[in-house]
Amino acid sequence: MSAYQTELDLFKNEVEQKLPGDFLQFAANYFTKRLEQQRTFIRNQESLALSKGIVLFPSTSKHDSVAASSASLSHGANTGAGVNAGLGASAADEDVLFKSPFVDRGPHSTHIVDHLEPTHAPSSVSGQAGRDDAPGLFKGNFNVGTESQRKVNSPVDPMAAAPTPQQHPRRSVVNPKPLPINFNAQRRTSVSGETLQPDHLDDWKPENFQEKTPEQVNRLEKAVGKNFLFNKLDSDSKKLVINSLEEKSIAQGEEIIKQGSEGDYFYIVEDGTVEFYVNNQKVNTSGPGSSFGELALMYNSPRAATVLAATDCILWALDRLTFRRILLGGSFKKRILYDDLLKNIPILKSLSTYDRAKLADALDTEYYEAGQTIIKEGDTGENFYFIEYGEADVLKKGKDVIAKLGKGDYFGEVALLNDLPRQATVTATTRTKVATLGKSGFQRLLGPVVDVLKLNDPTRSEH
Ligand SMILES: Nc1ncnc2c1ncn2[C@@H]1O[C@@H]2COP(=O)(O)O[C@H]2[C@H]1O
């Protein structure tokens, strides 16, 4: 069900961006292309593996091996054998296919292949575990301007390099296994295409499926109910997940995850406290109801942090395949939908993949038609905005249009930074889709880029 929903969401996104004149033709072209991509990908994965004498994700179940093939999109593309290789020549065709003669799509429109380019762009990943310390409260006012008008000073993404495996004296819960064919030590994949699972997996059942006792279900409902990931699942998916979770008792001091190792499980904390270390530095602590270990499973990347039990813990572990099959398309959908946008916004380049993913979790979508006002000069500022597509003018009383904004631009931060009323009006000039972030999310999640935001604040000189 979640694969179906993800496909629908991606399709909806395309329709909203392209506004096709001939909807049925557009839909036919779109799904034909998707089908080709998926089939080409699986064929290429199989022949690549065969040519190397490798059996992809050996499994007793035909479903598992197909799912694993689907899950290894990033590797296919890395080797030139993935979906982009299969459809690479069609980028121009795609443009013809999706072009509507009635709609000016503007300079920033994208193609569905954007969702399927896992190799060359930084990933936006996430973490549910732990609270990051709120990175400073902001003081400032309203800032506008296109990215090209803003000076961006982006430090290197600290997650871009493969983390150094840590040598902890504690016993590891996870036995190191040989890395799978799709393991990506570069950490530079996109999650998008990987989530698209073939339809015929709908009768799929997790390998570890084991009916839980009523007492366990009760406990799990309590533990899992606190985790936002599960609130978004339909009851069938929730049942599958609950019955696939394995209980693990971890003693204080034990290492649950080692930075740099391969990801095998996603964890939910029922009881106890866990600590996260990146390059031996403690970065986070989290407790009951939180979860961790999703990054490596989403991106086929090495574990981004070492996780230690700070107290005795009871954890519930979900295997990689069930995680990918159920949670990726459901609970982590926002990360998929915002992946493309966030990884292409220059001011966010300094965020780690973990931070960028948490940002995606906090975003909401709003739409504005041409002529509609998004924010009004003098109003109280509640939200910060990224433009997903569309165009908008920034107007100031007495000065008329002072800037033009387009895809990837941001606005609304000055009121939040400086606790001032909106310093200008922003009006959509074409149909515009924005991703919005509330004040508290802005303060909590954009700390690492606040200096860049302040640097770009056009009203700084007025203070
Ligand atoms: N600051 C952080 N950076 C990276 N990972 C973190 C951080 N805080 C918590 N984590 C979690 O630690 C997990 C380690 O394994 P993963 O990389 O699979 O997923 C990671 C996140 O869920």
TrEMBL record:
- Where 3',5'-cyclic AMP 2 binds, per the record, is at 413, 422
For the region Disordered, give the residue spans. Answer: 115-181
Q: Name one GO biological process term.
A: cellular response to starvation
Q: Which SUPFAM superfamilies does the record match to this protein?
A: cAMP-binding domain-like
The record's annotation in InterPro entries points to: cAMP-dep_PK_reg_su-like, cAMP_dep_PK_reg_su, cAMP_dep_PK_reg_su_I/II_a/b, cNMP-bd_CS, cNMP-bd_dom, cNMP-bd_dom_sf, RmlC-like_jellyroll
GO (cellular component) term, any one: cAMP-dependent protein kinase complex
**Pfam families xref list:** cNMP_binding (PF00027), RIIa (PF02197)
Superkingdom as given in the UniProt entry: Eukaryota
Q: Where does 3',5'-cyclic AMP 1 bind?
A: 294, 303
Q: Where would I find the Cyclic nucleotide-binding domain in this sequence?
A: 229-344, 347-454
Gene3D superfamilies in alphabetical order? Jelly Rolls
Q: How does it assemble?
A: Tetramer, composed of 2 regulatory (R) and 2 catalytic (C) subunits. In the presence of cAMP it dissociates into 2 active monomeric C subunits and an R dimer.
- Membership in a protein family: Belongs to the cAMP-dependent kinase regulatory chain family.
Q: What is this protein called?
A: cAMP-dependent protein kinase regulatory subunit
